[in-house]
Design brief:
Length: 429
């Protein structure tokens, strides 16, 4: 997906889909929620201090951050909403779409999202940096958006008849979001042609892992599709691997296509299932302090592995695929990944609101900084437009021989398995 990204958001819920860590409340935890509601200015200072202490860029986007504090604490704020507006305005000075403030409702929605449950239509969206267009990264499987046929790279032009021109990502999200059972009308531009969708919002429990036993000339193969790094992803991945091991698979295909990321710890836990040793990811903060996560001999399998990625594979997907590639544990097939190499710390605030702060960038085990650049597969295979049309019209094609990227991954895996089998046979003789 060759677009410059300004953000990556689940459009139904206002969740920034990134590599995030979730922590407790910020400063002054002993002060009550009532105090902050009665003193709106205090929450502004709370956010300012968190940014001052933890934001990844020590220059604050070349902004005099001390002067910003003076400017925003000088006025009186009559309501909490006025303070929230001031916070959002203050954060815009950082020029970072991933550092964002969430009012109490938005923060509650975010917590629901990372728990593996969504309310809305189920799409990941981004904002194109040069044109400000709102672009679909991918629909989430088995959601209203997925079932209706929304596609990666659709450009959202109107929501309920209102043009998205001039809207920022949060504006778009707030309009798409709504009560379960209500409808929202979205018009997208696809290859220059407008297409209108009317979708019914829903509350959906997302199971991020699906798996199946596939046949190949080298014996049974385990196919695992991971759609999101939510709180339940690691446990479901463990269950999938253990079940497929019991079935006697000879190797695995792990499908991370259109996986927008999620929780940092989830990607690390899943990497541990595939790696016995070696680095997983390093995070570097503004002081240059490196925190390295390494495998600790907890792999559930050592069988050959091929990973599918594409332009919708972002953040935590890139952490996992980068770790597997750098450790030569797997070969990657598909297209270049999204290029989201920043880590957010999500903090709750005493009044029930929250803030996501970019606190570090992450590097693959070999020291690659993938932000903006993404990860290049070992085998590059672009889908033709005809292929995209077929798969969009019939999503059951995904993970079958009618899916060209899967077919290529299966062929590659079969060759690796057969080579290993031949080596073992020769050694036995």
């Amino acid at each position: 997906m060759a677009i410059a990204k300004r953000g990556l958001v689940v459009g139904a819920t206002a969740l920034a889909v990134a590599a995030v860590t979730i922590t407790g409340a910020g400063l002054h935890l002993s002060q009550s929620k009532a105090f902050f509601e009665e003193s709106p200015k205090e929450i502004i200072d709370e956010v300012w201090q968190l940014i001052d202490r933890t934001y990844v860029d020590a220059t604050f986007n070349q902004v005099d951050w001390e002067a910003v504090r003076t400017e925003y604490l000088e006025p009186e704020y009559a309501t909490q909403e006025a303070a929230y507006d001031a916070i959002r305005e203050m954060l815009e000075l950082l020029g970072d779409p991933y550092t964002r403030f969430m009012d109490p409702q938005e923060f509650r929605n975010m917590q629901i999202d990372t728990s593996g449950e969504l309310t809305g239509i189920g799409i990941q969206i981004t904002q194109e940096e040069e044109t400000d267009e709102i672009v679909v990264v991918a629909p989430i499987e088995d959601t209203p958006a997925f079932e209706a046929g929304l596609r990666s790279q659709d450009v959202i032009t109107t929501i309920d008849g209102e043009s998205t021109e001039g809207m920022d990502l949060n504006d778009v999200v707030s309009r798409i979001r709504g009560p379960v059972g209500s409808e929202v009308s979205i018009t997208v531009l696809r290859e220059g042609e407008p297409i209108e969708f009317t979708l019914t919002r829903a509350r959906i429990e997302i199971h991020p892992v699906r798996y199946a036993l596939k046949e190949s000339s080298a014996g049974p193969v385990g196919y695992i599709r991971l759609t999101q790094f939510s709180a339940n992803a690691a446990s479901e991945m463990s269950d999938a691997i253990e079940a497929l091991e019991a079935d006697g698979v000879t190797g695995y295909i792990l499908d991370l296509r259109s996986n927008p990321g999620g929780l940092l710890y989830s990607s690390i836990e899943i990497a541990q299932m595939w790696l016995s040793e070696g680095g997983i990811v390093s995070t570097v903060n503004r002081q240059g302090v490196i925190d390295e996560e390494v495998a600790s001999n907890r792999a559930l399998t050592d069988k050959p592995l091929v990973v599918l990625v594409d332009g919708g594979s972002a953040s935590a997907s890139e952490i996992l695929s980068g770790a597997l590639q750098d450790n030569e544990r797997a070969q990657l097939v598909g297209t270049q990944t999204f290029g989201k190499g920043l880590v957010q710390s999500v903090r709750s605030l005493p009044d029930g609101s929250g803030i996501a702060i970019t606190v570090a960038k992450y590097l693959t085990p070999n020291g690659r900084d993938i932000n903006q650049a993404g990860i290049e597969p070992d085998v590059i295979l672009e889908l033709t437009e005809a292929d995209r049309e077929r798969i969009a019209d019939d999503r059951t094609i995904i993970g079958t021989l009618a899916d060209p990227q899967y077919a290529t991954a299966l062929q590659l895996l079969t060759e690796v398995v057969q080579a290993a089998q031949q080596t073992a046979l020769t050694g036995a003789e």
